[in-house]
Amino acid sequence: MRIELVQGDITTRTVDAIVNAANSSLLGGGGVDGAIHRAAGPELLAACKELRRTELPDGLPVGAAVATPGFRLPARWVIHTVGPNRHAGQTDPALLASCFRESLLVADSLGAASVAFPAVSAGIYGWDAREVAETAFDAVTAFAASREERGEDVGVEVVEFVLFSTEMVEVFRQVREGGPAWG
């Protein structure tokens, strides 16, 4: 599995699936979630409402993931995951790691070879960017390693971390390289 860092807008990435840092309602919000809903068009909200009506009447739990079509996005699918909200007392790194792992499991089940992730929970949910980067890299590499150990095809060939700011890219770069992060 190849891991890439990209500065830019996740809604413009030409990958098989993009990951949405959603809220549990799946009905849109601010930040990455709002941008993805706007770019995908009203069909995405309709698909999310259908998920709520059928499979997820209580919403998507923290750390879980579910897919919808990408509709007007270049990506074929949107994988929605709910990151832990540090401000709400959700401070367990295992919940954050679950977002990445569960998203990769969904991507694999869809046959996605390329997936773009945002910095889940590093925005309004208050997690430190360095901790998000460390957790993200650990979860992604552990996912690939566990598949390889079992002799299974990893499936997902490319993981992009698509980060909006130069500062966030630098934090992820430093974590990947094992050095001190910016800021």
Structure description:
By secondary structure, the chain is an alpha/beta fold. Helices cover 40% and strands 18% of the residues. The protein contains five helices and six strands; from the N terminus they run ββααββαβαβα. The protein has helices spanning 31-40, 42-53, 93-110, 129-149, 166-177, and strands at residues 2-7, 17-22, 65-69, 77-82, 114-117, 158-163. Strands 1-6-5-2-4-3 form a six-stranded mixed β-sheet, with helices on both faces. It starts with a strand and ends in a 6-residue tail after the last helix.
Structural features:
5 helices; 183 residues; alpha/beta; Leucine Aminopeptidase, subunit E, domain 1; single chain
Apparent shape: globular
Give the strand tally. Answer: 6
Helix/strand/pairing category: alpha/beta
Number of helical segments with 4 or more residues: 5
The CATH topology is given as Leucine Aminopeptidase, subunit E, domain 1
Sheet with the most strands: spatial strand order: 1-6-5-2-4-3
Rounded mean pLDDT is 94
Q: H/E element string?
A: EEHHEEHEHEH
Distance between the termini: 29 Å
CATH class: Alpha Beta
Gross CATH architecture: 3-Layer(aba) Sandwich
The percent range for strand residues is 15-25%
Can you summarize the main beta sheet? Answer: 6 strands, mixed
The number of domains: 1
**Which segments are poorly predicted (pLDDT under 50) over 5 or more consecutive residues?**
none
Helix content: 25-40%
Radius of gyration: 15 Å
